Structures are given as structure tokens and as C-alpha cells.
Amino acid sequence: MNRDRKPLIAGNWKMFHGGTSGVELAGNVAKLVREVPHAELVIAPPFTVLAACAQVVAESGGGVGIAAQNMYPKDSGAFTGEVSAPMLKESGCTYVIVGHSERRQLFGETDASVNEKTKAALSHELIPIVCVGETLAEREAGKTLAVVERQLRAFLETIAKSGTDPSDRAGAAIAYEPVWAIGTGKNAGPAEAEEVHAAIRGWLAAASPALATKTRVLYGGSVKPDNAAGLLGCPNVDGALIGGASLDAAQFGAIARAAEALALKA
């Protein structure tokens, strides 16, 4: 963890808590804010409850960012079932997850479409959390860094332009999420995570030293209270994109407090 970058702890609720239980969970997360002033908390509820969660967070005093789990790159049009960046902004979002491995694997998203969504998010001052990561077969074949670099380079120029424009207030975050560790209970150890995060930082620095300094690179993949400190303690890990553990405010809070403790030591 680096003192130049405020740790970002983001919870991806996936297809859970899409109604009243989501509003309750958002309210409980909002209560954590005062305990972790040196960390930034973000929740990504389903579309159906985004606006309601944004409202309950605002009524609690704010301090929790609202993220969408996906978006369509066009602002409007005849795209039945899709949701645009302007709609997300009106719902209270400040972040959006882009290119999650489940979107890539189950819904056919490509490197090119991920870049298109990243551009659209930045153009509307939504902060994209852009996901990269390898499958188990790719890791076992020794292709981890090659796969992650390919995925990163698809949107690197887009975020580099954003990162060097002083008028841009959004910026971007990157989440390294090894596909084999998502929802499996397995996770990359600190050394494995740091190897990839350091490589990502190096590719960012080659594009722009300022971009490398400001861009937060999160780890995602079965992050839990018992492994959070080890992962978040890596020099180039700036936070976490959390799945299952974000569905419980106590577990999410424990991870956030681990980030807070490390931020105070940095």
C-alpha cells in the first residue's frame, strides 16, 4: 500500500440484494465510514436498487461511493435492457465496474468493448474500475502477464489521456482479478498478487509516470477478512474488489478496517 494513493475498498454485490435487503446493507456500510477515514468505500448494487442505495447513503451523511456493475457505451437509443452512463449518473453513481471476468466469459465482452465502455464512462465523469485477469488454464500455461498486459493495453491509451488531462476529475482504477480465484475460495497469495500488480504499475509508468502514481490497482478474487491484510499490505496493491464478503456488512467492514490500519502505517 502506498501513501500517495488512498485505498479503495469496493464491494461487488453481483445479482444479490436487489431490493429492500440492498437498502439495508447500504445503510450498514454507510455506518462504517467514520471508522475508516483513510480508506474509500464503494458499493456496487444491482441496477434495481442503485438509486435507493444512493439515497440511503446520502441520508446517512454520504462517504460511500455508488458503482454500477456494468453499462452500455451509448448515451441513449433503441437498446432494450441496457443502461447508459447518463442514467447511472442520475441514479447517483460515481463509479462503474467495466470488463468483469463474468461479463467477458458469460456475455462475450471483448477487449475492444471494454475500452469502448471505459471511454464512455470517463466522458461522463464516471470512474471506471476496469478489470483484468487470467483464467486457470492461462496461468498454468505461464501466460498470466501476457494476458494481463494484452487486456491492459486495450484501454491504456484511454486512461492515459484521462490521467494527463488536468481538467478531468474522474480518472480510473484497475482491478486485477484472477478468474480462477473468483468465487472459488482460492486466491492469489501476496507474492503472486504483487508480481502482477507491480507489472501493471510498470506498464502504466511506461505510458505516463503520473498515471502510474495516481492509478489505484485493486486485487479481486476471494478477498476475505482473514487474508485481506496480507494482500493489501503489498506495495502495489491499493485496495480490493470484493465479491462474496461484500454481501455482509461485518465482513466488508473487517476488510475496510484492515485497509485503514495499513494506511495509517504507510
Characterise the protein shown here:
This protein is of the alpha/beta class and 266 residues long. It has a single domain (8-265), classed as TIM Barrel (Alpha-Beta Barrel), CATH 3.20.20. 46% of the residues lie in helices and 14% in strands. The protein has 11 helices and 8 strands. The chain has an 8-stranded parallel beta barrel, surrounded by 7 helices. Strand 1 (8-12), helix 1 (20-30) and strand 2 form a beta-alpha-beta unit. The radius of gyration is 17 Å and the shape is globular.
CATH architecture, please?
Alpha-Beta Barrel
Please work out how many helical segments DSSP would assign: 11
Number of strands: 8
The CATH class, by name, is Alpha Beta
* Fraction of helical residues: 40-55%
Query: What is the name of the CATH topology?
Result: TIM Barrel
Main sheet record:
8 strands, parallel, barrel
- How far apart lie the N and C ends? 7 Å
Domain module tally: 1
Report the C-alpha radius of gyration, rounded.
17 Å
- Name of the CATH homologous superfamily: Aldolase class I
Mean pLDDT rating: 94
